[in-house]
Amino acid sequence: MKLKLILLTLTISQFCFSQNMGKIWPPTTMINDVTFKDSKFDRFNIGCGFLLKVNQDTFAITAKHIICVAKTDIMKTTNFENGLKQWTMYPKDKKEQTVIMDRLLNEDKTDSVSFDFINRHDTTYNDYLIFKIKQNNSRLKPLEMRKTKLKNGEILYAIGWTYNDTEGSQRIYKYSYYQSKGTRFTMRLINAPENGGGLSGSPVVDSDGLLVGIMSGKDKDPITKEPLQSPRNIDYLIRFFSSYNN
Q1: pLDDT digits (tens, 9 = 90+) for 152-181
Q2: 138 and 91 in contact (C-beta within 8 Å)?
Q3: Beta-sheet pairing, 48-54 with 29-36
Q4: How many CB atoms lie within 10 A of CB 31?
Q5: Does the model's pTM come out above 0.85?
Q6: CATH architecture of 155-237
Q7: What is the DSSP letter of 67?
Q8: DSSP states along 161-215
Q9: Domain ranges of the chain
Q10: Model confidence over 204-223: pLDDT tens digits?
Q11: What totals of helices (H) and strands (E) does the chain contain, helices first?
């Protein structure tokens, strides 16, 4: 009886993580496995990613700062220097639903892949990797971008897994919009962990499920020292796709 009760509790808990206010949130988020021709640089379960629909095309998106860690010794920028073997995404709870990356569309040879560079360009940094998709075996719902500005105090959600979320369906973490700072904005924590390690690359969506940002870092209120999450906004994505040509 105790075992059945535990299993029932886990099932209810996982279901609650995937819904909000009675609304079922469809699976949208994946994790990254990055393998190189030299396998000593391989990195698994590193950050999150998602699919994005733009017009009639679907792309795979994740956080660029992930390759500050998932890189070879000779990589200095987002150019993989012919060392990448395969970049794969899949839902943590459905590993068979793989999405295999094709070409990186926004390679930038002037953009250093180091945390020092990111910190020095904190309010201007573009933290997106945009991939064409070679093969999509998933049943995930691609997100679409929101076209209107965020409002003060608006409820937002990050969808994904922290490194502490070792199993089960995607988590839905709740925040409220606080303020903008260049390419990023801050969110107050409502129902979310203070340490969001592993959520990098997770989509940030509004109550309608429209994309408004990507999980990228954290911050603190300079006066109250309140912990904040600090995603990047979607301005870069909007600019990129406004001039994108197959």
Answers
A1: 999 999 999 999 999 999 999 999 999 999
A2: yes
A3: antiparallel
A4: 25
A5: yes
A6: Beta Barrel (2.40)
A7: G
A8: --TT--SSSPEEEEEEEEEEETTEEEEEEEES-S--TT-TT-EEE-TT--EEEE-
A9: 29-142, 155-237
A10: 999 999 999 999 988 888 89
A11: 3, 16
